[in-house]
Amino acid sequence: MRNTHSSRVRFAPPLRRGLSLLTAALAACLIAAPALAAPPQTGVLCTSGVGPNPTFVLDAQEGYIQLPDSTTMYMWGYGKGGGAFQYPGPVLCVNQGDTVTVILNNTLPEPVSIMFPGQENVLANGAPAQPQGDGAALTSLTNAATTGGSVTYSFVAGEPGTYLYESGTNPQKQVRLGLFGALVVRPTAGATFVYNRTDSQFTPEEEFMVLLSEVDPYLHWAAESGAPYNLNNYQARYWLINGRGFPDSISDNLSPFLPDQPYGALARITPFDTALHPQPGAIRYLNAGTEEFPYHPHGNNGLVIGRDGRALAGAAGQDLSMEKFAINIGPGQTWDVLFSWHDAERYHPDTNPIPVTIPQVNNQEFGIFYSGSPYLGLQGPLPPGASTLNECGAYYIISHNHALFQMSSWGVNATGPITYVRVDPPLPNNCQ
User: How far, in Å, CA of 54 to CA of 160, rounded?
Assistant: First the structure.
């Protein structure tokens, strides 16, 4: 029996012409629409608010993160409004003088709030934010949204620099569980400056965040199950950088296998050059934990130019910046640091060889970040069966928390707040 129904849909000529015109119009719109810039693989990944005076919507919600020892941990976090849980909260980037609005929606089983340390005259639902109490004790350092409720904060972004934002409600519990994030205030001098000082200029592609935090799994399990959250028993057993432990910390921003931990910590820089690369990189250090973190990158000092959103300058504007090998960030503190890498010796196998005899390949031990050559920008032979992640001949220099017991995940060594500084070959180069 012959099938008399065609699977192909036929339109009358006028409708056909109309669809053709619609298709052409849509194609023209797609061609004319500007392409969205891809998010940076490394460095600070800003969340920009809507409008010239930015508005942000944050949802306080629960979720889970992946830890380096394969443990899955229950957390709280500030996620983007209507979006998924994330840890830590979005990096809010604003300009000095902006009127900033943050709408907090609460989906958690208890009241929560947001404090903005370093910002003045913060309003909550249009009124000055006030401490809250239960008649006998202070319960919140700002207005708190009840479960399922909402509160709108607003403030004028004041001094430029780096700040934490965090819950002001039962903070010893809620900040530990993950209700915190970073706030970056760009100066009026421009987005390539940390402060309104000419000596705070940096390379915009080399702006990095080191946001340090900690986890006591027993208290997180207590919060998940509804058991008492007893701080008398608090003991951190995980320490994280940008919400991740090593080796996850060196994965790209928005790594697909870490959907709820969006921020990588790999610092990728190019050697200083007076003509091609004259400006340093910038690192924004933040401590959301309960103890001091003595953090440092190997291989070079950092120039501390500001702390807690204030430039290190005298009353007359004199430069009070200082070089530091280890950046000792206290609980709740932020530090702004400039750094650069100088290829001072400019070693080259032909024109300026290293003045030592390099052992034969079979007498060496190779790590996965070694290119097979001691020279920047070059690769060399590797032993049979060896592999490398270094395809450009870059230098990988470790950076880590110098309190060595904090470099672990519940005793698993070298899995904590560790990352690398990747020094790419000098410009121009084709490393991607």
Answer: 16
> CB 73: neighbour CB atoms within 10 A?
19
Can you read off the two tokens belonging to residue 38?
């891809």
326 close to 295: Cβ distance less than 8 angstroms = yes
Concatenated DSSP letters for 346-406?
Answer: --BTTTB--SSPPPPGGG----TT--S-SSTT------TT---S-SS--EEEEEEESSGGG
User: Which pLDDT score is estimated for 52?
Assistant: 83
- Pick from 35, 47, 133: which is nearest to 89 by CA? 47
The angle subtended at Cα 289 by Cα 217 and Cα 215, nearest 5°, is 10
pTM of this structure: 0.90
Q: What is the pLDDT of residues 297-316, one digit of tens each?
A: 898 899 999 999 999 999 99
Report residue 334's pLDDT band, with 50, 70 and 90 as the boundaries: very high
CA distances from 27 to 11, 18, 31, 32, 38 (A): 21, 14, 6, 9, 22
Pick from 78, 52, 49: which is nearest to 151 by CA? 78
The alpha-helical segments, DSSP class H, found in 202-298 are 217-225
CA dist., res. 246 & res. 226, Å (int): 30
**Domains in the chain with CATH codes:** 46-199 (2.60.40.420)
Q: Which of 173, 248, 269, 172 is nearest to 417 (CA)?
A: 248
From the list 75, 432, 46, the residue with the least C-alpha distance to 253 is: 46
Q: How far apart are CA 62 and CA 109, in angstroms?
A: 10
221 SS3 class? helix
C-alpha torsion 218→220→221→227, nearest 10: 90
**Does the CA dihedral 224-226-229-230 come out positive or negative?**
negative
**Mind listing the pLDDT tens digit for each residue in 237-252?**
999 999 999 999 999 9
Q: Range with the lowest mean pLDDT among 81-90, 187-196, 397-406?
A: 397-406
Cα three-residue angle 288-73-266, rounded to 5 degrees:
55
Nearest to 291 by CA among 250, 252, 323, 333: 333
Distance of CA 156 to the CA centre of its chain: 23
Q: 162 φ, ψ to 5°?
A: -115, 135
